[in-house]
């Protein structure tokens, strides 16, 4: 292992980054963080720290926690040292509480939760199934796609009396040939390629 690290340390930064980007971020962090000053600086780059999948995923789409030794080090050392750099976490049910309690995540804006009960997921973000639910506005959802250029994405939201919402998201809307399950909240802008529309009348349509 020492020989491998020595060889890595001899590579130019650009080549080293190209190699490390082919690995999983968790592998990079677990193997190289705090090894030496140079590698420590490189692996703390946002490329390796902003989006972390702290679980094992297999070809059959099953999810398992990280091995105990790896999980222990992430929770006790790695996550607290990079917490301000983390923007997204993908977690599975058996280890998520431990990871979420390992440190504060001041810049976390996204959380992917796998194989968990919906009540658990909602309780983690402070929502009760029996209380009022916060429903995202169209502006909130559209802001999610702010990095798409030239109006590649459009969206709208239907809100229902049972305190749930139905969000419609269209990618490259000017190229669509079909609109399915639209309601009286549909914003219009039917483009020239549209050939078929499916209407959904949970609420009566108004002209």
UniProtKB/TrEMBL annotation:
InterPro entries: F-box-like_dom_sf, F-box_dom
Pfam families, per the entry: F-box-like
Coiled coil: none
Start and end residues of each F-box domain: 5-58
Signal peptide bounds: none
Name of the featured protein: F-box domain-containing protein
